Amino acid sequence: MKRHIAGLMILAFIGGAALAAQTAKPTPRTADGKPDLSGMWYRRVAGPVTQRVGNSIVRVPGNATVPDRYNPGRPKYKPEFLARVKELTDDQINVDPAFHCGPPGIIRIGPPQRIIQTPREVVILYDDLNGSFFRVIPTDGRRHRAGIEPSSLGDSVGRWEGDTLVIEVRNILDSTWLGDDGLFHTENTKVTERLTRKGDTLTWEAVVEDPEVFAEPWKVTPRTLTLMPNTEIEEAAFCEDRGIDDRVTKDYHGNVR
Amino acid sequence: MRIRFWVLVAVAAAWMGGSALAHHSVPGTFDVNKTTVIKGTVSKVDWINPHIYIYVDVKDAAGASTTYKVETLPTNHMRRAGVTRADILEGAKAGAVTIHMYPALKNPTAGFLLRITFPAGHFFHLFGEDSEIARASN
Whole-model pTM? Predict the structure, then answer.
């Protein structure tokens, strides 16, 4: 095990050096002087896990074992809600909407994948296992829309604070979860995301506030993404719920009904 | 212990972001400590999320055919690996493919794909380590 940990540390160091080199590049800016967040952003810092050799696809032994090891963390629920979190966790395989191809919602969908930036708005596109999703985020002073139904990704408005785009999200459908393990929320959840580009890296930060059920705001573990040049997002393939007949859940959540 | 460690690491590497984690835990469905091999013809490829399915018809000694459901990566992971549905169907046209897979814990005719080897000799090794191919048994 020690050897494994040493190996992971070496690979993490190599990954960190590569990330530092990408951060050191100049940050491109749009005509209005804002950092240009446009592009396809990769969620992993590790290299590819496979490569083509002739007609074959082979595993890349080193990279295949480099985990992103991203852990968003967990919110601190008020004591009276812990039983509910446990109940949902224990029955996740049955009751988690995302497990059955439902929309993942904010913030579970994670950081941006593809960003399109204009002077008036920023558009974020996602190719998720559960489908293609998008957000149109005004950055020209428009406020949250009134009279619209809640949605899985909510209603977002953005503003620039220096070189950071700050996005406030409201009106998030309370049937979505904030993450695995029963992370339920109310319809009054507020999410604040911050996007900062440095060179060819983009750092995503998020804070989730839900005072009805959280003991304190949840600061999600930040994530730094790298730019993927010459790559374009594609429409997600259809997500088909194949049920849970083959699942043996002792290593996962819940019991098969 | 060693195998389990690396499998968990590989799963963590492969499954991340979005609703990925909500989906199917490989160790929760498949025996990741075992590799089995089947040989048969590809009858269908379902290019769907959360995981792609390859259907393989396997004939026994008496000639009776059984269809195995072989689960593999999500579509965007497969795209990143540079594999298309056409690549699989085209490679499988010439005859039987060999599948190395984790057998399902419950379903005797299902598995999770490690490597598909085509009649022409080329292969797509999409999951797990070389040692997990080498340990294969039937």
Answer: 0.84
